UniProtKB/TrEMBL annotation:
This is ABC transporter ATP-binding protein. The lineage of its organism: Bacteria, Bacillati, Bacillota, Clostridia, Peptostreptococcales. Its main location: membrane. PROSITE patterns: ABC_TM1F (PS50929), ABC_TRANSPORTER_1 (PS00211), ABC_TRANSPORTER_2 (PS50893). It is a multi-pass membrane protein. The keyword Transmembrane applies. Gene3D superfamilies: ABC transporter type 1, transmembrane domain, P-loop containing nucleotide triphosphate hydrolases. It is found in: Cell membrane. Residues 19-299 form the ABC transmembrane type-1 domain. It comes from the Bacteria. The chain crosses the membrane at residues 16-38, 58-84, 137-154, 160-177, 242-261, 273-296. Keywords: ATP-binding, Cell membrane, Membrane, Nucleotide-binding, Transmembrane, Transmembrane helix, Transport. GO terms for cellular component: plasma membrane. One of its GO terms (molecular function) is ATPase-coupled lipid transmembrane transporter activity.
Amino acid sequence: MNTFKKLFSYAEEKKVFIVLSLFFSGFATCLSFLPYYFFWQILREITTNSNITEIKQISLYIFLTTVLYGVTYIISLLCSHLFAFRLETNMKKRGLYHLLNASFSFFDINPSGRTRKVIDDNTGNTHTIIAHILPDSVNAVLFPIGVLVLSFVASWKIGVLMSIVIILALISFKLMYADENMMKEYMSALEDINSETVEYVRGIQVIKVFGLTLDSFKKLHESILNYSRVVNKFSQMSRTPFVIFQCLMMSFSALIIIIAYPMIVMNESMSEIISLVVFFMTFAGLLNSAFVKIMFFSKNLTLAKDAIDKLEDLFEKMDENKLVMGNITKMENYDIEFEKVSFGYEKDVSILNGFDLKLESGKKYALVGSSGGGKSTIAKLISGFYPVSSGKLKIGGKDIKEYSGEALEKNIAFVFQHAKLFSRTIFDNVKIGNPEASYEEVMRALEIAMCNNILDKFETREKTIIGAEGVHLSGGEIQRIAIARAILKDAPIIILDEASAASDPENEYEMQRAFSNLMKNKTVIMIAHRLSSIRNVDEILVIDEGKVIERGSHEKLMEGNTKYRYFRELFKNANEWRVVNEN
Ligand SMILES: Nc1ncnc2c1ncn2[C@@H]1O[C@H](COP(=O)(O)OP(=O)(O)OP(=O)(O)O)[C@@H](O)[C@H]1O
């Protein structure tokens, strides 16, 4: 019931519809007995007086009560659908709200496609239980009760027989679904096999290139074996009660012999016997369908519970690591200062420990160092992706926490290693940098970012839709469009995380020019592996194990036995090695 409480809380304003739906469903169930009652009366009339006027009259009652039942049931479904669609909409809205307010760290860890899928799939999974199963469950519960009452009204013997059948069916039914953990285990095995299959298909290129077999793709193999084991266990567990349940339902009509035979032997009224037999037999299929509805209810309730748990778990994750924001909107200057900052992504693993660093407004810095040293982490902290664990991170002399979210967004532009472009026109992709910008300003940004030769490739130029048929952009070209976007944003602090990694030698020259245009008069923090691209910066900082171990100009760091010089030589050797091998 907790699941329903949670579900209903998403659409409090339309709760009245679900109450109405349950009421009409109950009312419809009661009405559904009337046609059967009148049917029994017709049988009695046919087998006794055969009064045609009376039969016509009762037939009319059957017709009217059936129509009334149909209308009431439709009203019930209409109400449940109104509630279910509002619930789905509100859940999606809540998802959107959390997405818009999610911490940056959330997007750092969670792929956007998966997040969308969790929200879309799980909100969808709540539809069946609310729109169909919930109103039907009222029917499923009331129907066997009504059948019992009507049976006792018809004959106490039929009533007793019906009671025995219903009790036995309920026991076997309960045994089938007794183990809630079994259901959970089944759902989790199903989810595992689904996600592992998706992972396998996504990596199909690697699998083909390396000729991997399913066995070597261990996790998928294990998930298949696990699924098969769980399904087998579930089937074995449900086997006996399911067979009993099916036998009961299938042989239900035959049970009337227990009552009819002694009546025939005792020479009771033939018309009474026939009407009772036919009346009893009509309930056989109806009772079965009531139980099937209960079966669907259990399954869909587990699905809905799973869906709501997953959504709430996602919302919780979106709220983790959120930066506490202040309300200062203006930055006095763009000096950046780390004061004894400690930070770790996980509780016990510290990446920065008492880290100190000062970067001056308007200067260009390059962070270099061995992989995993903490360069990107420093950049992410400056951008406000994660809050620091202790110490202070200041921009313009004020703690980053004192600024509003908009102030950080407005003043910092981050160009990622793998820039993301949307399936819109090149123009629109750039305009995201400043939605207020004019046509000329966008075109100017494209020009400064050296994108003109990209536009020349397409007849539709800046109106070319990214991802449309025949539109293929190289990594370097995508990066230049992303730089145009950052140029248009015109933020005073620019962070470039391995931003030239995607460029090939052919467009590296253009990339470098695009970068220098972007960096003019800004505070720039550039993380670079290509050491050739960082010569024009004011200072180079060598980061190792979360510390600045060297800092200075290229010339200064090349003097003496520095780590930077060592990296340079490695880089030079690697390039020479590459050129020799390419020749
Ligand atoms: N989202 C994350 N969750 C947990 N640990 C992380 C996360 N991102 C980075 N790390 C860890 O933090 C450490 C520093 O990583 P960071 O990316 O800052 O290094 P880097 O110097 O930029 O490395 P590279 O040059 O290879 O990109 C690494 O040990 C890395 O495994």
